[in-house]
From TrEMBL:
Catalytic activity, as annotated: L-aspartate 4-semialdehyde + pyruvate = (2S,4S)-4-hydroxy-2,3,4,5-tetrahydrodipicolinate + H2O + H(+)
Function: Catalyzes the condensation of (S)-aspartate-beta-semialdehyde [(S)-ASA] and pyruvate to 4-hydroxy-tetrahydrodipicolinate (HTPA).
Keyword Iron-sulfur: no
Site label Part of a proton relay during catalysis, positions: T45, Y108
UniProt-recorded name of the protein: 4-hydroxy-tetrahydrodipicolinate synthase
Signal sequence, start to end: none
Cross-referenced Gene3D superfamilies: Aldolase class I (3.20.20.70)
Subcellular location: Cytoplasm
Active site: Y134 (proton donor/acceptor), K162 (schiff-base intermediate with substrate)
Gene: dapA_2
Classification via HAMAP family: DapA
């Protein structure tokens, strides 16, 4: 399945009591769809998934599926370091009607490559939905090797990977050794254009909350062969991409959205709000 080029890893809006805000979530979904998001990833890292309860994830998937109403694909982040819990949540998300599943590499356990392969294989067998793997060794401490990703790509419904290692050589190896209909997405906004240049399909983005249309213009320029314009746009967008990660994600992007009048509330502990100094930096960049 082609999820598009700019996939937004959506923040989870909270109200003043720290609970999921249904109306703000609906407003955010409309805003993202209208401003360059080809698909929405729900309950990923940027959605503060470690702080969401099982019920909150189910309720959030249900809300997004019903409200988006097939305008764009909704991809549910159901991965964890517990294989059976991941299977259970994936089955529930499938029954709700999400369009795809994103599975993070198991964290903390430090599984072997064979353990990772068996984990993803078992989860894939629990659903017919298309699955995107998510390799982010900076958060999980365990890296999915290119050879393991290539082996997993042979499983029919494992159709993509969000490669957030920042390793362009590994990305090139995966692209070269997988079928044409297996899509690689970078998980790093600042690597969007370099990744496209080696054959990536797009980006699972944080900055697209703020510059979704501009990122779409950059991708369109590259796809049309106007490399100079794509490079110019990439350079002009880099400061905003970098500013979104001056503090632990999604603290900066939530502040930026609130500053733009797209109210999403604050972050949950153990994350904390930006300092006044960082607020000034982010505000000046955007």
């Amino acid at each position: 399945m082609d999820f598009g080029h700019i996939l937004t890893a959506m923040v989870t809006p909270f109200n003043d009591k720290g609970l999921i805000d249904v109306e703000k979530t609906k407003q955010l979904l409309d805003y993202l769809i209208e401003n360059g998001s080809d698909a929405i990833v729900v309950a990923g890292t940027t959605g503060e998934s470690p702080t969401l309860t099982h019920k909150e994830k189910i309720d959030l998937f249900q809300l997004c599926v019903e409200y988006v109403n097939k305008r764009v694909p909704v991809i549910a982040g159901t991965g964890s370091n517990n294989t059976q819990a991941t299977i259970d949540l994936t089955i529930e998300a499938t029954n709700i009607g999400v369009d795809g599943i994103m599975l993070v590499v198991p964290y903390y356990n430090k599984p072997s490559q064979e353990g990772m392969y068996q984990h993803f294989k078992c989860v894939a067998e629990s659903t017919e939905l298309p699955i995107m793997l998510y390799n982010v060794p900076g958060r999980t401490s365990s890296a999915l090797k290119a050879s393991t990703t290539i082996a997993l790509s042979k499983i029919a419904n494992i159709v993509a990977i969000k490669e957030a290692s920042g390793d362009l050589e590994q990305m090139a190896e995966i692209i070269s050794a997988t079928d044409f209909d297996f899509y690689l997405y970078t998980g790093d906004d600042a690597n969007t254009l370099p990744s496209l240049a080696i054959g990536a399909h797009g980006v699972v983005s944080v900055a697209s909350h703020i510059i979704g249309e501009e990122m779409q213009a950059m991708v369109a320029s590259y796809k049309k062969g106007n490399n100079a314009e794509a490079a110019r746009l990439h350079r002009s967008l880099l400061p905003i991409m970098q500013a979104m990660f001056l503090a632990p994600n999604p603290t900066c992007v939530k502040f930026a959205l609130n500053s733009k009048g797209v109210e999403v509330g604050g972050v949950r502990l153990p994350l904390v709000p930006l300092t006044k100094e960082l607020e000034n930096v982010v505000r000046s960049v955007i």
